[in-house]
Amino acid sequence: TKDLGGFDSSYYAGLNLVIIAVNLLLPWKAFHSALNGSLTILLYLIINSFFGGEFQTKILIGNLYFMSSTVIIAASINHVKYVLIQKDFENRKSLKQARDSLWSEMEVAMRIQTSLVPPDTKIGVYEIAAIMKPAAEVGGDYYDIIQTTSDPWVMIGDVSGHGVESGLIMMMTQTSVRTILARTPQIEPSKLLVLLNKVIKENISKLNVDRYLTITAINLKENEITYAGSHQDLLVYRKNQNKIESVPSYGTWVGMLDDVDDYMKDRSLPINEGDMVLLFTDGITEIGFEQKNMYGQERLEKCFLENIHLPLRTIIDKIVEDALTFCPKQEDDITIVIVRRV
Q1: Structure confidence by residue, pLDDT tens digits, 258-274
Q2: Can you give the pLDDT at residue 170?
Q3: Is residue 231 a contact partner of residue 337, using CB atoms and an 8 Å limit?
Q4: Helix axis angle, 30-51 relative to 57-116, nearest 10°?
Q5: Would you tell me the crossing angle of helices 57-116 and 164-183 to the nearest 10 degrees?
Q6: 152: buried, middle or exposed (CB in 10 Å: 19+, 13-18, 0-12)?
Q7: How many CA atoms lie within 13 A of 233 on its CB side?
Q8: Distance separating alpha carbons of residues 300 and 315, to the nearest angstrom
Q9: pTM for this prediction
Q10: Collapsing DSSP states into helix, strand and coil, what is residue 27?
């Protein structure tokens, strides 16, 4: 502006653009914007006062008015922008804290659920091994190995869906089953599931969620197993014949009807020395479902029979490895339990 007429030059407007550009591009507070704008006006006054030549006072006042207005506007915009940036930062910080807290609680839930899963064991004349691989942090599959004052029990089930809600129902199921068996260890499997249904149906209604449970309860007697409940087929390996029988389970789902007494019936299977029973959830057979080419029960039976000579834990590992090699993406919880009569 000095070279173009000092205070009388209209190019002072260029300084307005400089003030706006600098202060809006830099993440300053309002104070810094006001200070920067004020220094720019001060330099404008000093340089043009000494080197700008003659001028008209009213023009100078007009120039200063517009430049001061620009400084105020720039400072105001920066104030709002800084407040928004600060709020965004605080929101991100709160979101991170909430996420960390959620993950911490999920880890606690996962540890609780993992601690409730029984280890491989030998009860009476039966050797039992199992695995449960949740698809999410908390799974909806359920299995249990329960020693009572009478015969031992094996339970396997699958809550619809997976995640926290399903995991919660799974833990309710485990607690309810153990409570019933502690009070009435000689109860029939069908009666056990009728009582379980009353508890789970009421709790699901209180949670106001759309969930149900497929489950099979198996009572391990010395030379036979008695079972009830609707779940996946029982795969029974007959050592003397070196073949696998696919035994369907009967009954109805738990948690949908108020009374399932008419649908639960007990059935028995003879179990000889060396015979094995493989129990599973649909998470293993339905691997690859989204690709329209599932692992399926036929492949499961084939892998089971091919590795039948191995220890139970190794058989389970081989099955899981084979299924995940077939389709690495796990969409649902996977549970496998093998019971062998020794």
Answers
A1: 999 999 999 999 999 99
A2: 87
A3: no
A4: 160
A5: 30
A6: buried
A7: 14
A8: 11
A9: 0.70
A10: coil
Answer whether 186's CB lies under 8 Å from 150's CB. yes
CB 5 within 8 A of CB 52: yes
pLDDT tens digits, 122-135: 999 999 999 988 87
Partners of residue 243 on adjacent β-strands: 238
Strand 334-341 to strand 126-133: parallel, antiparallel, or no bridges (unpaired)? Answer: antiparallel
**What is the CB-side half-sphere exposure of residue 20 using CA atoms within 13 A?**
10
Pairing of strands 267-270, 243-247: unpaired
**Confidence check: pLDDT of 216 > 70:** yes
DSSP string spanning 246-296?
EE---S--BSSSS--TTT---EEEE--TT-EEEEE-HHHHTTTGGGT---H
- CA dist 122 and 145 (Å) reads 10
Q: Is the pLDDT of residue 167 over 90?
A: no
- Residue pLDDT, tens place only, 137-163: 667 789 999 999 999 999 999 998 767
Query: Rounded to whole angstroms, how far apart are CA atoms 277 and 16?
Result: 85
